[in-house]
Design a protein that fits this description.
- The protein folds into 3 domains: 153 residues, 3-Layer(aba) Sandwich (Rossmann fold), CATH 3.40.50.300; 48 residues, no CATH class; 93 residues.
- The chain is an alpha/beta fold.
- The mean pLDDT is 94.
- The chain has 16 helices and 9 strands.
- A 5-stranded parallel β-sheet has the order 2-5-8-1-9, sandwiched between helices.
- The structure holds adenosine-5'-diphosphate and magnesium ion.
- The site of magnesium ion has 4 residues, from helix 3.
Length: 308
Amino acid sequence: MTDAVEQIQGLADELAGVGYISSEDVATVVYLGDALGKPVLVEGPPGVGKTELARALADVVDRELIRLQCYEGLDEGRALYEWKYGKQLLYTQLLRDRLGSLLADSDSLDDAVRRLDTLGGGFFSEPFLEARPLLQALRSERGAVLLIDEVDKSDPEFEAFLLEFLADYQVTIPELGTIGAVHAPMVFLTSNGSRELSEALKRRCLHLHIPYPDRALEERILAQRVPGMGETLRAEVVAFVHGLRVLDLRKRPAISETLDWARTLLLLQADRLDTELVQRTLNVLLKFQDDVETATPRLRELQAGARS
Ligand SMILES: Nc1ncnc2c1ncn2[C@@H]1O[C@H](COP(=O)(O)OP(=O)(O)O)[C@@H](O)[C@H]1O
Ligand SMILES: [Mg+2]
């Protein structure tokens, strides 16, 4: 047990070394995912570091990061592989004359088709294959970190296909046969929770929920990412953002907004928060006019709270 605890701490340190500050929960699940060879499904609101986690881990383990960004309508062709139709067509045209002479002495249409069929195999071979992220991950020599990002944006049919892929990390291409993983990839899936994922997919993965960070963690992230900021202002910034997150907002500010705001304040050479400064820069934190209106009457109180 102590061994595992040490390794988890070691992983957290290594992640910090590449700029990612992880909570104990995060480091534990990532460690277990690797140790058990299971995909990790990372859920949480936008902007809390889900995508960045996979990037940071790829850095730590020194493996290639391969990212599949999901969207509505994403299909196997885009995710796995496609035949390079344009190239096939171009080659057919370039070869037309030669085909003409090859087929010239066929005595029937059937015969010509049969001859074409034996020649046609060449068009469904490696040079005409366009590997997309899932296939790239299987073929990666050293084993990739595969990030299947924002899987909640894909359609349920695609999710079912993913489940199959994750079950055995192999792909059958009818013209080429079955391709298995050279090295099983380390897989991360992320979801912003815009829809519920299937039970089956959840079962296949280790689950990691990343909530908004507590104050101490967010201050550490801020210190890491915006090192030029003094300690006092940093604490005020984080306290203020935490005050905003309690309000009833359409879009709560996430870590990304805290970082943007901190950079803005640095540019404006602020060393403490004051109400006027907050008011002027609020649009960096809140992206909806509704939210600005909700927050405005509370600014003085939030800012005073953050200073104490
Ligand atoms: N734990 C963390 N340590 C360092 N930076 C972080 C952390 N969490 C988030 N960030 C930063 O916050 C921003 C948003 O992170 P991102 O991974 O894009 O969020 P998500 O994928 O959850 O929407 C990025 O700029 C990232 O560098
Ligand atoms: Mg993301």
